[in-house]
Amino acid sequence: MTERKKVADLPDFDAAPYLDSEEAIAAYLTDILEANDGALLASALGDIARARGMTEIAKSAGISREALYKALRADSSPRFDTVNRVCAALGVRLVVQPVHG
């Protein structure tokens, strides 16, 4: 008989090690944006920034490292300006597409 595990006992998933190319980052952000959840977007940008190096991204975005960590927490609601600056530092941009009903 196999041993049952509780969900709470499973390790947290960290996407950062898998975000190793622009294509992977773009696909990840596209999926996240479809969820229409600002806090999830902030957390995803944090995953990508950690994959790229938080200090370097903070410097490129013109934000202190501490402020970047705070803005990209899972429970945060960063301003659009912050999201835009972080995206630019990551080398990606948000794109608008028409929604077909």
UniProtKB/TrEMBL annotation:
It comes from the Bacteria. CDD domains: HTH_XRE. PROSITE patterns: HTH_CROC1 (PS50943). Signal peptide: none annotated. Pfam families: dnstrm_HI1420. Coiled coil: none annotated. Residues 54-97 form the HTH cro/C1-type domain. NCBIfam families: dnstrm_HI1420. This is Addiction module antidote protein.
